[in-house]
């Protein structure tokens, strides 16, 4: 077992992410109370965390996390192809790798946040945030819908629909399918699907419930969950890497 693999196997990444997320929520809650009244905390929360500013801490962290996730799934794909060829399991790794890369591209508006090339592009005219990504497209404008109409609130920024849909798709692959995998194992593509740990699935569900309560009952923390999803993708990849390393270690011991 190489030092890198040994480090991954011994790393309790789920606990690290849990501690980080809890710390963020505690900071957000404390900021709601006047008796705390810390200017630095308030400034950091509203300029670096709960904001759409692409140069903020959360936005940069999310972009970096998507790059790491892309690399991890690429590494899993490479090892899987080398071990068993281009089979169904490799397709799953390729899917997650491309999904992570697409999310990274969208996060940085396909390089516009880095190179500022969009001045004369038509896409910024139909983008709710004047960016070169797809998830902020103003579909209401494209469809010539009446402003302030029933559908305008949902379609003036495609992210209003795509973001929750993206979360549901990931929950389907990371929680729902793994939970019922044993009962639908007759489907070879499902049987080949690499799954995260039970600990991750439990954390994902608990955090999703907690997020919905805080976001709707208390205050808007949508940026926290968006950032969490990028970290969760890394956690899924690390879970699979850890499971593979442990399985290979057992196989070597038995051979």
TrEMBL record:
Domain of life: Bacteria
Alphabetic keyword roster: Membrane, Transmembrane, Transmembrane helix
TM segment ranges: 16-36, 56-77, 89-105, 161-180, 224-241
Protein name: Uncharacterized protein
């Amino acid at each position: 077992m190489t030092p890198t693999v040994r480090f991954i196997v011994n790393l309790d990444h789920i606990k690290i992410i849990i501690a980080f997320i809890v710390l963020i929520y505690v900071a957000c809650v404390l900021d709601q109370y006047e008796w705390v009244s810390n200017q630095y905390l308030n400034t950091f929360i509203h300029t670096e965390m709960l904001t759409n500013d692409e140069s903020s801490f959360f936005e940069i962290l999310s972009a970096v996390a998507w790059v790491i996730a892309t690399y991890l799934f690429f590494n899993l794909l490479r090892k899987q192809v080398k071990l068993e060829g281009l089979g169904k399991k490799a397709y799953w790794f390729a899917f997650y790798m491309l999904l992570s890369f697409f999310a990274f591209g969208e996060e940085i508006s396909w390089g516009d946040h880095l190179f500022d090339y969009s001045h004369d592009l038509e896409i910024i005219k139909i983008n709710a945030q004047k960016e070169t990504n797809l998830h902020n497209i103003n579909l209401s404008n494209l469809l010539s819908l009446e402003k302030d109409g029933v559908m305008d609130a949902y379609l003036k920024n495609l992210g209003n629909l795509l973001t929750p849909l993206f979360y549901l798709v990931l929950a389907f692959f990371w929680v729902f399918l793994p939970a019922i995998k044993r009962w639908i194992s007759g489907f070879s593509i499902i049987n080949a699907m690499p799954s995260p740990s039970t600990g991750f699935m439990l954390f994902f569900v608990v955090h999703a419930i907690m997020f919905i309560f805080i976001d709707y009952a208390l205050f808007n923390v949508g940026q926290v969950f968006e950032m969490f999803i990028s970290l969760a993708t890394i956690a899924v990849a690390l879970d699979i890497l850890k499971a593979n390393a442990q399985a290979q270690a057992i196989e070597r011991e038995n051979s």
